[in-house]
Specification:
Elements lengths: L2 H20 L9 E10 L4 E10 L12 E13 L12 E14 L8 E13 L3 E2 L2 E2 L4 E13 L5 E11 L10 E11 L1
């Protein structure tokens, strides 16, 4: 696939994911969020990430102190590797777009610090290169798995700060599957 065709595919994917998250098919009182993030990862990489979230319309275990909710998230990554010990032909820059479903266990009543939570998610993503920072990813298609923990705070729980561990992998559907691990600090706002 030509580089210009890959870029066009990414732009189309970003627009579709963004619109699907911002304008859900059914009206609801669910909140919409935005986030920015950065951190570190494999190949001494520095990811920059933006995300748009839409809460699920339904929650489960509402009679518990830790009900289960969640959200859809469209995220866009710009990752730069700073590993000087890789082959000269290795890509040192990667773009990715992902759509993930995230389940969140959040304290119902909150604490003095806010409303703590833990979350797990899985999504689908497309990456711009099959190789990055000396790691062979195998395919442009990747799964995005994540674990996170954080706290929402503010009068209306509008602010969000969290840590997320994110893993990209093709689950061995390609010839190679070295994967990418990222650790990020996320700042978010819900409205």
């Amino acid at each position: 696939m030509k580089h210009s065709n890959v870029k066009k595919l990414f732009v189309k994917q970003y627009i579709i994911i963004f619109l699907a998250v911002i304008f859900p098919l059914e009206p609801s009182s669910a909140q919409t969020g935005i986030s920015i993030a950065s951190g570190y990862g494999v190949a001494r990489s520095i990811p920059l990430r933006i995300g748009v979230q839409q809460e699920f319309c339904k929650q489960w275990r509402m009679d518990s102190n830790w009900p289960i909710g969640g959200y859809w998230e469209a995220s866009f990554y710009d990752v730069s590797a700073h590993n000087k010990n890789v082959k000269p032909m290795s890509h040192q820059h990667l773009n990715a777009g992902a759509l993930a479903a995230v389940a969140r266990l959040e304290h119902k009543e909150g604490t003095q610090l806010g409303w703590p939570y833990v979350e797990l998610g899985i999504g689908l993503s497309l990456v711009s290169h099959k190789e990055f920072g000396g790691r062979k990813l195998g395919t442009h298609f990747q799964f995005e798995d994540r674990f996170g923990m954080g706290v929402r705070f503010g009068e209306n729980r509008e602010y969000d700060i969290s840590y997320k561990a994110i893993h990209f992998s093709n689950a061995y559907i390609g010839s190679y599957n070295h994967g990418i691990n990222l650790h990020i600090l996320v700042l978010g706002y819900w409205f």
